[in-house]
TrEMBL record:
This is UDP-glucose 6-dehydrogenase. Catalyzes the conversion of UDP-glucose into UDP-glucuronate, one of the precursors of teichuronic acid. NAD(+) binds at residues 11-16, 36, 41, 92-96, 133-134, 167, 278-281, 348. Keywords: NAD, Oxidoreductase. It is an enzyme of class 1 (oxidoreductase). Residues 334-449 form the UDP-glucose/GDP-mannose dehydrogenase C-terminal domain. Belongs to the UDP-glucose/GDP-mannose dehydrogenase family. The active site is at residue 278.
Length: 465
């Protein structure tokens, strides 16, 4: 079996950066080069101050600190890294299309195609190309077609190796993966390529957790895994609305059903709605694929997961407005959290963006505090929606570094991200600061209802009456 000594990863994002850092840590005999066309991002990965890495992820800075410059390299020299590597991971973004056929649903594969063309142009010897990005089922055939028409006599073996890490726990997920999935051709050379990639993971993942499938099952399984996870969140969120009407308590319901080992307890936390770069994108993609094969009922079934998620975000914003006497115009509302979940600086599709947008439409004045998200990012997220002018966004929404001081004369606090630090705040002092009645809208079920109502707050927790 061929031995891999040089890996290149195209795309130094939330997946490429952490994944390659862990491979470099676990395989000191392999030189790993992560390349990106984004010069700023590569400069941040190479910053001597590890606090300035482009991605916040617990445990990541330590691994980068230990491997960078030894067998882990970040570079903008894409062609050079492709040329030198025996194995190339493609880990670029695959966002939802914003134009043309499939707009708003299909995955935009232009970055993937550019990578394939780049590899085809540069490669002078045989390579294993690994799809790490999440891709629609049958994408490998498009990549293969581009690579095989290069005319420079190079043999490419294409593998699908989707990533299952979750942000905020990426390093832990990579080190102790439930499973690693490797899809490839059933031909002798396809099987050999799967075994070569498997041997890399076997350095730290037990072999019985490394699953080999055909390439199409692997591509489709990634979309389906995300759809099933998101479906659980939408399912429990739908029941949270019913709990609020019936005096049932969503935490008690989650616990009661989760104890059934067939259901299981994970991913049953009711929230203001799921966010993140992938759940929505991947389900929309699944819906698009199903529809394009004429499977209307299948498409409608999965689309409902997204519809329920949108409803949950709107429902939370509506609860804030109706509780504040049906008007939030000119009222100061503090947002605790902007990231789509705790322990990440990623804000893509965060529920906070949509709740803020709905409240700004009602002319609320919002002040946001998030421990890891920059002011620049918050405004970029709002501006991207194009609901109002950038000037109006900056006039109506402020960003603060001081979560307690910000509550001076506020009408309400809305909790949008479950950052642990929010639990440790001096809530009596915050209560003193605020206008009365002082409201808390807990979109993450983070705080203790008894303690807060004792202080005097009017406290709403999603999924409880
Ligand atoms: P990202 O946007 O953080 O990173 C992608 C990077 O690719 C960017 O830095 C971009 O500049 C670079 N890039 C784009 N085209 C390029 C090209 N032609 N050459 C070189 N660099 C190029 O995206 P991400 O969150 O890392 O996601 C990457 C893929 O992994 C997506 O398909 C996503 O669905 C999937 N995924 C993401 C997660 C997650 O938690 N974020 C988890 C599992 C799978
Ligand atoms: C998710 C999957 O968990 C990963 O396996 C997958 O690799 C990744 O998508 C991807 O393909 O990008 P991620 O989006 O990073 O990971 O984070 P999750 O922990 O899944 O959370 C997603 C959203 O659901 C967050 O907004 C979170 O707050 C919300 N959520 C999650 C709930 O509201 N309730 C829950 O019980 C769980």
């Amino acid at each position: 079996m061929r031995k891999i000594t040089k890996i290149c990863c195209i795309g130094a994002g939330y997946v490429g950066g952490p994944t390659m850092s862990v491979i470099a840590k676990q395989c000191p005999d392999i030189q790993v080069t992560v390349v990106d066309i984004n010069e700023v991002r590569i400069a941040q990965w190479n910053d001597s101050n590890l606090d300035n890495l482009p991605i916040y992820e617990p445990g990541l800075a330590e691994i980068v600190g230990a491997t960078r410059g030894k067998n882990l390299f970040f570079s903008t020299e894409v062609d050079k890294a492709i040329d030198e590597a025996q194995m190339i991971f493609i880990s670029v973004n695959t966002p939802t299309k914003t134009y043309g056929k499939g707009k708003g649903q299909a995955a935009d594969l232009k970055f993937i195609e550019l990578c394939a063309r780049n590899i085809a142009r540069v490669a002078k010897d045989n390579k294993i190309v690994v799809e790490k990005s999440t891709l629609p089922v049958r994408t490998a055939s498009a990549i293969k077609s581009i690579l095989e028409n290069t005319g420079n006599g190079v043999d490419f073996e294409i593998l699908s190796n989707p990533e299952f890490l979750a942000e905020g726990t990426a390093i832990e997920d990579l080190l102790n993966a439930d499973r690693v999935l490797i899809g490839g051709d059933e031909t002798p050379s396809g099987k050999e390529a799967k075994n070569i990639l498997s041997a890399i993971y076997e350095k730290w993942i037990p072999k019985d957790r490394i699953l080999q499938t055909n390439v199409w099952s692997s591509e489709l399984s990634k979309l389906v895994a995300n759809a099933f996870l998101a479906q659980r969140v939408s399912s429990i969120n739908s029941i949270s609305a019913l709990c609020e009407k019936t005096d049932a308590n969503i935490a008690e319901v989650s616990r009661a059903i989760g104890y059934d080992s067939r259901i299981g307890s994970k991913f049953l936390n009711s929230s203001v709605g799921f966010g993140g770069s992938c759940f929505q994108k991947d389900i929309l993609n699944l819906v698009y694929i199903a529809r394009s094969y004429g499977l209307q009922e299948v498409a409608d079934y999965w689309e409902q997961v997204i519809i329920m998620n949108d409803y949950q975000k709107k429902r939370f914003a509506n609860t804030i407005v109706s509780s504040l006497y049906n008007t939030v115009s000119g009222k100061k509302i503090i947002f605790y959290g902007w990231a789509f979940k705790k322990d990440t600086n990623d804000t893509r599709e965060s529920a906070a963006i949509y709740v803020a947008d709905a409240l700004l439409d009602e002319r609320a004045e919002i002040t946001v505090y998030d421990p890891k998200v920059t002011e620049e990012q918050i405004y970029a997220d709002l501006d991207y929606l194009n609901t109002r002018s950038p000037e109006d966004n900056r006039r109506l929404l402020k960003v603060t570094n001081d979560p307690t001081l910000a509550t001076q004369d506020a009408h309400a606090i809305a909790i949008l991200t479950e950052w642990d630090e929010f639990k440790t705040y001096d809530w009596s002092l915050i209560y003193e600061n605020m206008l009365k009645p002082a409201f808390i809208f807990d979109g993450r079920r983070l705080l203790n209802k008894g303690e807060l109502t004792q202080i005097g707050f009017k406290y709403y927790k999603i999924g409880e009456s």
